[in-house]
């Protein structure tokens, strides 16, 4: 059950963060509140998804950060926390941070999608659907 919460929240995180990047890139009317809503929703979903997996591993006594998926997820989690902070400070007069916020946002969305793919591969291997 906990695994499904992990997967569901992180899938939502990927969707929200990707949409936040797309909204910021297009900059249509009223783009900023939408961008912020999707970005914050992505962060919340990401933290919940990661929290569920940390709990699951702790309950079962399994090691943390031992696979490509877990390491990539850890890096994505750090970026997921840094990116909105850069965005927040860039709206508070720290204009020099805005390009970094944009770069981190794109990297975060891309890495999150790559980590999602590694998670799907792990799941398929676990289910025996991918064998040599």
Number of helices: 4
User: Which descriptor suits the 3D outline?
Assistant: elongated
Strand content: under 5%
H/E topology pattern: HHHH
Structure description:
With 132 residues, this protein is mainly alpha-helical. It starts with a helix and ends in a 6-residue tail after the last helix. It contains four helices and no strands. It has helices at 2-26, 31-60, 68-90, 98-126.
Give structural attributes.
mainly alpha; 81% helix; 132 residues; 4 helices; elongated
Q: Could you outline the blueprint of secondary structure elements for this entry?
A:
Layout: H1 2-26, H2 31-60, H3 68-90, H4 98-126
Helix pairs in contact: 1-2, 1-4, 2-3, 3-4
Task: Write a brief caption for the model.
This protein is an all-alpha fold and 132 residues long.
